[in-house]
Amino acid sequence: MDCRIGCAACCIAVSISSPIPGMPEGKPAGIRCIQLTEDNRCRLFGQAERPAICVSLRPSEEMCGPTDADAYRYLEALERLTKPGE
After folding, report:
1. Which of 16, 19, 43, 77 could form a disulfide with 27 if both were Cys (CB 3.0 to 4.6 A apart)?
2. CB 12 within 8 A of CB 31
3. End-to-end CA distance of the chain
4. pTM for the full model?
């Protein structure tokens, strides 16, 4: 499965704990990654600076669902379930 162009749910809904160029402390959940273009494409795709978690995340029917809204709901729920201390 390929990413839906323009979705960016994984670049907004989830937190990233490792540094990102322009976001040295990482990215909180629900915050748009600074590396997203206006049309929701990753400026770091294929670059060495792209965080390992981003490289390892692969789209799937379960995660992405049929719509962008489904992807956001799934990833927001996953973020809540995996939040440390909860």
Report:
1. 16
2. yes
3. 32
4. 0.87
